[in-house]
Amino acid sequence: MESLLNRLYDALGLDAPEDEPLLIIDDGIQVYFNESDHTLEMCCPFMPLPDDILTLQHFLRLNYTSAVTIGADADNTALVALYRLPQTSTEEEALTG
To answer: Which UniProt keywords apply (predicted)?
Structure first.
């Protein structure tokens, strides 16, 4: 069975990268993939970690209303959006999230 990541690249009409599994949307948006036997994890840093507590709380509240998990990167310098899909997901589910 073909991996969900390969099916996602096929659905987008893209060639899978030979090195790190990465989708570059533009200069500011990059989606990193981590695939296991059971899940496909997509991680996208989307902004510097806010200094303002209200802004941070706003983004963290999204964890309760969305399938996307918002957190900080390992260096605590950026907010990242994390989305996990089971390998049994369809290409459409991966595209629409």
So the answer is: Chaperone, Cytoplasm, Virulence
